[in-house]
Amino acid sequence: MAGITDRPFRDLVARFGAGLVVSEMVASAEMVMAKPSVRARAELGYDASRTAVQIAGREAHWMAEAARIAEAQGAAIIDINMGCPAKKVTNGYSGSALMRDPDHALSLIAAVVGAVKVPVTLKTRLGWDDAMLNAPQIAARAESAGVQMITIHGRTRCQFYKGQADWAAIRAVSDAVTIPVIANGDIIDAPSAKRALAQSGAQGVMVGRGAQGRPWVLAQIAATLYGTPAPQIPQGAALCEMIGGHYTAILGFYGQDLGLRVARKHLGWYMDEALTPADLRRVILTAKSPDVVLAHLSDALAHAPERVAA
Question: Where in the sequence numbering do the catalytic residues fall?
Answer without folding.
Answer: 84
